[in-house]
Write a structure and sequence with these properties.
mainly alpha; two-stranded antiparallel ribbon; 5 helices; 3% strand; globular
């Protein structure tokens, strides 16, 4: 199996470029994304212990949030709300999800595990919007 895969990659002229572990700044934009995820994830989860399933669910939801961030408008029409997102490059179409009700006002002891994860995702979203998206606002004097 390994040898057939190796031959296929050689035949396709697949080339791997590795970043040395001591120099993550060589990664540029994708390392900045990883840093953003780690920064906000640490603040959302904090010192609490979560299971592998909860962690992977939370990461998948955060991935959806970040892949839906706007990169630029698709037209100059101010009434057109369509934007280009990283999700467009991943699957070719915008990522659409149904909104879920917020559980932030409910005491944590009454929440299910899924609702607790949803609260953490909502917390991540609020932090990301307030810290990341504000960089795009132009300040006029």
């Amino acid at each position: 199996m390994e040898e057939s895969l190796r031959q296929l990659l050689v035949k396709d002229r697949t080339e791997y470029i590795f970043i040395s572990p001591g120099a993550p700044h060589f990664g540029g934009k994708w390392e900045a994304s990883v840093k953003s995820i780690k920064h906000h994830l640490k603040r959302v989860v904090g010192d609490r212990l979560i299971t592998f399933e909860e962690f992977s669910s939370l990461l998948a939801q955060i991935e959806g949030v970040l892949n839906y961030r706007p990169l630029c408008a698709l037209s100059d029409d101010p009434n057109d709300c369509e934007v280009l997102t990283p999700g467009n490059f991943l699957i070719g179409v915008p990522i659409n999800t149904l909104p879920e009700p917020s559980a932030t006002g409910i005491p944590e002891s009454r929440l299910s595990q899924f609702q607790k994860l949803r609260v953490k995702l909502d917390h991540f979203w609020r932090r990301w919007v307030s810290e990341y998206l504000q960089r795009f606002q132009q300040n006029s004097k």
